[in-house]
Amino acid sequence: MKNLHVTTTINGDAAEFVCEPDETLLDALRNRLGLTGAKEGCGTGDCGACSVTLNGRLVCSCLVLAAEAEGAEVATIEGMADGDQLHPLQRVFIEKAALQCGVCTPGILVAAKALLEKNPDPSESEIRYWLAGNLCRCTGYDKIIRAVQDAAAEMRSA
Amino acid sequence: MAFDENVKTEFKVVGTRVKRPDGIDKVTGRALYGADFNAPGMLVGRILRSPHAHARIVSIDTSEAEKLPGVKAIVTSADLADPEDDFFRDIRDNCLARDKVLYDGHAVAAVAATSRSAAKAAARAIKIEYEKLPHVTDVDEAMKPDAPVVQAGRSDESVPEGLSENVTSYFEFGHGDLDAGFAKADKIIERSFKTAATHQGYIEPHACLATMGSDGRGDLWCCTQGQYFVRTICSEVCGIEATQLRVTASEIGGGFGGKTTCFIEPVALALSKKSGRPVKIVMSREEVFRATGPTVSSSSDVKIGMTKDGRITAATAKLRYQGGAFPCGTVEFGAQSAFAAYDLEAVRSYGWNVLTNRPKEAAYRAPGAPMAIYAVESVVDELCQELGLDPLDVRLKNAARKGTLASYGPTFNDIGLVATLEAAQAHPHYAAPLGENQARGLSCGFWFNFGGNTCVSLNVNHDGTVGVVEGNPDIGGSRASISMMAAEELGIPYEKVRTVITDTNSLGYNDVTDGSRVTFAVGLATIEAARAAKREMCKRAAQIWGIDEEAVVWEDGAARPSGPNAGEHPPMSLADIAAVMDQTGGPIAGHHEVNADGAGVSFGVHLVDVEVDKETGSTKVLRYTVFQDAGKAVHPDYVEGQMQGGAVQGIGWALNEEYIYGEDGRLQNPGFLDYRVPVASDLPAIEPVILEIPNPGHPYGVRGVGETSIVPPLAAISNAVSRAAGVRMTELPMSPPRVLKALSGG
Amino acid sequence: MKYVKPESLEAAATLLAAEAGTSRILAGGTDVLVQLRSELVEPDLIVDIKHLDGLRDIVEENGGFRIGAGVSGAQMGEHAALCAAWPGVVEGAELIGSTQIQGRCTMVGNLCNGSPAADSVPGMVAAGAVARVHGPDGERDVPVKEIPAGPGKTNLGKGEFITSIFLPARPANASDAYLRFIPRTEMDIAVASAGVNLELAEDGTVSAARVAVGAVAPTVRLVPDAGAALVGSKLDDAAIAAMVSAVEAACSPIDDKRGTVEYRTTTAGVLAKRAAHIAYDRAGGAK
């Protein structure tokens, strides 16, 4: 299996890596680029812990070949804060205790950010359906939903 | 100086909603979990697993695999040690099968190679010859005398004659005259129930990184609920002295009991020893489902007698649990907890533990209790329906309270069951109107809560800050709670305390993060360690002031002269004393080591409204309220989080989650697609109502809150569905095909 | 395994035709990557086609819509005119997987994966959609209902692949709906499903109807008798009962971990009934 060379953009910065042809974007992020914020919970697109955006679309990075990142723009949890300024979602998640073990948190934050960019004022039901692909086993989702609502309200009034 | 012997009730820090110390790491992706740690020269480990439910291993040929490029080590059970104790031998044989494979997914061999693809190729090149054996996966089938025997010779002396060798232990609890009790009943209902095996379903698969030197010293990084126990297991299974193996717990991506034992760590150590290089093993989700967890599946018969006015006169429960291919003790907890919520004159529970060709069960949140209490609370609900009684009135009439002789032996101290029942009765949810095809269900829940071995060191720094060192992985915000209790006791701000979880060589032994023990036991040890540090600080102040140390008290975060010297010297704060500690005798620290007792049992009551679609058998959860006694809620957000999270795991258990085995004994749904944990859109808001009935066994009144919340949902939802559907449901999960079948008359 | 991004449809067809081993087309990748990861399929060749001209576009054509093979479910949901004309087809496509899957999954991939439970297929079959197939011998148009051959199998030839789906023009007073049953609210494979496409006369009677069901046979099945039962009615109880009977008669499902034969059959009828009412209301029908 001949390795491929991929040139891409990650969180706004140019990046290059070498990967096997059947390697996933998730594996490349984690093992080639040291970006371990995206997690592998299932490897089959059923848990959302590996969520990133690819050219602005929310995707499971476990269901993207690393080779497909060629020329693309990838955004991960590591790029969500602006320097030491947390994104409002990140800050409100801490303030409202919207995480317990925290392993699903990066995927949920990336997904929630994508939602609020598309719909700044989602209903509770819209949030629940948008996040249906992000499994959380600790919280029962309740505090996550409240935190997304609170962050959305704060972002709308900013 | 004197310290309060009584439970403290006034707090400054405890009870507030401070920010967790690991928050920023976890929202930025910086927190390091099991699979996130790497070492130079690291190899990829991969485990080869049995495709059979039950088979003798005739031979294992690794010669072709060893020749493949990039392959650095291959291990089998022969590379592991020979522990004396059955308990550790079972863990060893679960990590790598010895003579037989006992379930689909049982590990047989493992390879370490330079890449994932090389490891995959090597695993495929290992040739294993199996001789297939008959298998059994159902608990009732496995108990029959002619059932295939999973492991011979494992029954203990408690097992009655005439049962299959698969029955490994038997338990019985209770008191009173059953015949007399049933004779007094106006109505007796006896029913049989089944519950499916469910998995803990933590989102982070098991992962570890092992380094074993040729000098016999090892380092292990892993996601676990207890690094000390991992060390004990690996020491036994790999033949390493405890002190030579340092185990560091990573951040843990959920456990719920499922990460209290070892599946891959001894294998990674053996591979590292053989290859001379660090080895990382990360399980796939399929491996997690096939070869870790799950909880037991159960079959049970419950018989309860009740008078017309709702008094329970006698009750029995017969519980049969299968815990997979190795002996387990879970049914003991089931038999003990079945009737814990009731004050009964005549009660008996019986439990049988049974071997089957399934993965060895692992602890799952209140292990053993949910399925037993599901069956009991279902029968109580049906009696209420039959006799036309209010189900909360009936629970209150029979509720266990202080002084009740529990069905499993002890006499209860201060407990919160009546308070939670009264809170549920007074809550608007209980009186809210219901629509067509809708109904309300409720259930009580109970868990024992544990204390156990615990060590804490508390170090005072020169700048007036405090470091707390503890040994229990933080699974739901415990570092915040521990820091809060240290700050409370010392009288300093929460922000001045930092709690870290240390490795096995840096602190004495700590039991696993389980049994809802951490906030209780580590909290207790932290408070005692803080008190030790305060005593030392009072001594230093006395020395500076030139007065007797008995004449110094600690109040509001400062040492103050008392008695005749009161007011003679300005108080010295923790920071004041810390700044000059080098001149007064050197470093100041407090320690506490304890095998903590007095955890205090926990009760909860859940109310749920559901709607059943009678055309499809689908159930929608409309409203859910959790009432639970926390003793004292140290950080209310995280107490609520435990109540909500447990409720939702229970909702999954009640409605959709199950291990499905085929005729071939293989697991058919080893993934999150067909093992259906609840998703956000399945659920309503989960409203938590915290009750605080102080636990006399803890200085702040704390009780564990982590487990009780998974117990009531099973019966609460089953009772609601049964009432909405107009037919009594007796099997979990209540998946739509099962409900539709019941609606059409079974 | 080789990963190739060809420069043209012709080049893609040539590569696929020449590959002696197993090959897979990559557009959304949400099925292919799962197969790779679970080691169910280990292709020798992956041909990535979604970058090719036209494959990521939705264009209006002869009053209908041509949807490229690389168009994701999310992209369909964002296309107002498509949603207005074919709400049932769009809701089928939008039910495939999570929000994350929606960012990548395609109707063509869903169709070519060959699952009898594919969510976008009953809607397309009910709509009379036509697939444009590219292959070594050039282009041909094939009705979507003729593409599936059985679980995991299609009737496409060696080197052939689908480049777009065409949804025809709609008369006024026409609409469609798709419903599936899953045990949760999201994230599952359909246990049973139904797509209903209706055209109404001015007085609100059904003038044409197509009913397709999923997950109840080896392939998604068009049920002509079910459609015929609705024609001439305003979905009165008798017409619905006749349609439900026709649907149930057309079901030949399997018993498996997701549902029993009996359950799937009953549920398909229930869903067809409910979808018919939704489509009727959408088409402006008044009972």
UniProtKB/TrEMBL annotation, chain A:
Database matches in InterPro entries: 2Fe-2S-bd (IPR002888), 2Fe-2S-bd_dom_sf (IPR036884), 2Fe-2S_ferredoxin-like_sf (IPR036010), 2Fe-2S_ferredoxin-type (IPR001041), 2Fe2S_fd_BS (IPR006058), Beta-grasp_dom_sf (IPR012675), Diverse_Oxidoreductases (IPR051452)
Gene3D superfamilies per record: 3.10.20.30, [2Fe-2S]-binding domain (1.10.150.120)
Gene Ontology molecular function terms on file: 2 iron, 2 sulfur cluster binding; metal ion binding; oxidoreductase activity
Keywords, in A-Z order: 2Fe-2S, Iron, Iron-sulfur, Metal-binding, Oxidoreductase
2Fe-2S ferredoxin-type domain segment(s): 4-80
Record has Iron-sulfur as a keyword: yes
SUPFAM superfamilies the record matches: 2Fe-2S ferredoxin-like (SSF54292), CO dehydrogenase ISP C-domain like (SSF47741)
Keyword Endoplasmic reticulum: no
CDD domains named in the record: fer2
Entry-linked PANTHER family: OXIDOREDUCTASE WITH IRON-SULFUR SUBUNIT
Name of the protein this chain belongs to: (2Fe-2S)-binding protein
Organism expressing this protein natively: Roseovarius faecimaris
From TrEMBL, chain B:
SMART domains: Ald_Xan_dh_C
Highest classification ranks of the organism: Bacteria, Pseudomonadati, Pseudomonadota, Alphaproteobacteria, Rhodobacterales
Keywords from the UniProt entry: Molybdenum, Oxidoreductase
One GO MF term: oxidoreductase activity
Name of the featured protein: Xanthine dehydrogenase family protein molybdopterin-binding subunit
One Pfam family of this chain: MoCoBD_1
Organism whose genome encodes this protein: Roseovarius faecimaris
InterPro entries (alphabetical): Ald_Oxase/Xan_DH_a/b, Ald_Oxase/Xan_DH_a/b_sf, Ald_Oxase/xanthine_DH-like, AldOxase/xan_DH_MoCoBD1, AldOxase/xan_DH_MoCoBD2, AldOxase/xan_DH_Mopterin-bd_sf
Domain Aldehyde oxidase/xanthine dehydrogenase a/b hammerhead residue range list: 28-134
Cell inner membrane found in the keyword field: no
UniProtKB/TrEMBL annotation, chain C:
Keyword Transmembrane belongs to the record: no
Organism listed in the record: Roseovarius faecimaris
UniProt keyword annotations, A-Z: FAD, Flavoprotein, Oxidoreductase
GO molecular function: FAD binding; oxidoreductase activity
Keyword Plastid in record: no
Coiled-coil zones: none
Name of this chain's protein: Xanthine dehydrogenase family protein subunit M
Listed InterPro entries: CO_DH_flav_C (IPR005107), CO_DH_flav_C_dom_sf (IPR036683), Diverse_Substr_Oxidored (IPR051312), FAD-bd_PCMH (IPR016166), FAD-bd_PCMH-like_sf (IPR036318), FAD-bd_PCMH_sub1 (IPR016167), FAD-bd_PCMH_sub2 (IPR016169), Mopterin_DH_FAD-bd (IPR002346)
Chain ranges of the FAD-binding PCMH-type domain: 1-172
Pfam families named among the record's database cross-references: CO_deh_flav_C, FAD_binding_5
PANTHER family referenced in this protein's UniProt entry, alphabetically: XANTHINE DEHYDROGENASE SUBUNIT C-RELATED
